[in-house]
Design brief:
With about 230 residues, this protein is of the alpha+beta class. The protein has a domain at about 125-225: TolA/TonB C-terminal domain, CATH 3.30.2420.10. It contains six helices and five strands, in the order H-H-H-E-H-H-E-E-H-E-E. It has helices at about 15-50, 105, 120-125, 140-150, 155-160, 190-200, and strands at about 125, 165-170, 180-185, 210, 215-225. Strand 2 and strand 3 (about 180-185) form a beta hairpin.
């Protein structure tokens, strides 16, 4: 009796289907294998980047305080030993004083140092403004009268009809005498020289005073020249 196969059990008919299923499984396994490798690579790469970004630790140095210097050594105590000597013991060295004049003392010269007193500034200073102005004996009226009586009109100024005021400056010293007369402004014709002559011939003035003391004072005097 011949055995017949069941058509459902015939595997040759399903060979193509099994082949396709096997290819799909192999392809899926390959894809999974590739995905696993790429994931491991990315993970390791990320780990390396994290290692590169580690910040270095900064150490701040602080000043080291030096220990204080040791205290200076204490000075040794000095003790004074007083030796009591009896009156009967002889003294080896004895100092004696003598008032007698010897040859050595005769040669000693006594030098006297004289201290010069500093000259007061007010002795040489010339004031322009003082508490008490210098004054001609008798006042200003007596001064103008003196000028009118003693001035001789210069011939050159008379011939050229020169008139006006000549200003003269001079110093009234502490004793009232006149010093350093000078012409500040001249009108010419010999008027300035005549004014100087008359000022030099003036009697002594009453000196100016500053704080009750006579001082040198600069004085300016106008001398009027008029033709009559």
């Amino acid at each position: 009796m011949e055995l017949k196969k069941n058509p459902k059990a015939d595997l040759e008919k399903r060979r193509g289907l099994y082949l396709e299923i096997g290819l799909v499984v192999i392809l899926a396994a390959s894809l999974i294998a590739f995905n696993v490798k790429s994931y491991d690579k990315d993970e390791s790469t990320g780990f390396e980047r994290q290692a590169e970004q580690v910040e270095e630790e900064i150490i701040i140095q602080t000043d080291i305080q030096e220990p204080p210097p040791p205290p200076p050594p204490e000075a040794p105590e000095v003790t004074t030993i007083i030796e009591v000597v009896s009156d009967d013991k002889e003294i080896e060295k004895e100092v004696t004083f003598s008032s007698e004049v010897t040859d050595d003392t005769k040669n000693i010269a006594i030098v006297q140092v004289q201290i010069e007193e500093e000259e007061d500034e007010t002795e040489t200073q010339i004031f322009t403004v003082v508490e008490n102005e210098p004054e001609f004996p008798g006042g200003m009226e007596a001064l103008y009268k003196y000028l009118a009586q003693n001035i001789k009109y210069p011939q050159l100024a008379r011939e050229n009809n020169i008139t006006g005021k000549v200003y003269v400056t001079f110093v009234v010293e502490k004793d009232g005498s006149i010093a350093n007369p000078k012409v500040l402004r001249d009108i010419g014709g010999g008027c300035g020289a005549e004014a100087i002559r008359v000022v030099k011939a003036m009697p002594k003035w009453n000196p100016g005073k500053q704080r009750g003391k006579a001082v040198r004072v600069q004085f300016n005097l106008p001398v009027n020249f008029n033709l009559r």
